[in-house]
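$ fold --in a.seq
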Amino acid sequence: MWVPCDLPPEQAVTATLEQIDAGHALIARHSTELGFAPTADELEKVFASGRIASVFGAEGGHSIGNSLATLRTLYTLGVRYMTLTHEKNTDWADASTDEPAYDGLTAFGVEVVREMNRMGMFGRSLARGSLHNGRCAGCHRVAGDFQPFVGPGFV
């Protein structure tokens, strides 16, 4: 699910929810070709049935509107990965394609990563760009727990 980075937080959340709703409707309408796959087991079942597996993700942390409750709600609705940023900083994380503002993550950004780890949500660190700058490295080491975070090209 992609929404523009410059939307105000509440509009970004609404736009993301509308895309999730549309995704579920599309899968239901074309259930002979598509299958929703929020888990690895579901992914295998969908592939085994000859259908295309649909995995939902949020392209940019702005989609949660600075709310851990919204992050949890997206997970409940089937979102299984989120990039922390897209091409611009969020209010809590630096993008590798924007001017640094937080030296990586704010305290809230750390909480976002911890909550994603707790739920088992995959993440991708700091935009679609490369991770070769120093401010990105700390995002992988939040409290020594970086299991679901992957580098560019893996999500």
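$ fold --in b.seq
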Amino acid sequence: MLLQTFNKEERIAFAELAKQMIAVDKVFDQRELQMYEDICAEMNIDESDVYKMDNVDIKDLLDVFSNDNKQIFAILELLSIAFIDENYAIEEQQMMCEMIEHLEIDEEKLKEMQQWAKQRIKLGRMLIDILD
């Protein structure tokens, strides 16, 4: 939903951020990997495009987004990835803090964004239950 607002360069930057968020704690949970695959499919990007941005600095990746709203969308999606495995690891928290500081997002807004991401995951799980 939010990902469709990104242009091609933003989509590739976001996919690299997502890849880094998944890898930062060195725990590759199947739910995170599935979410990454779903993200790439939704954004219609090829994995080979993402590998061109391997190890690009987080701040540089965030600067690719053309406006504040798109940066917020990226953070919301990244929070969803961080929360999907029900283990918001310290490494994920540190990466998120680095991004939040770079984007100058205040603590209150971050709390609201975290709540949104948690609710999104909860609603997604409820939908799966309804469809089963």
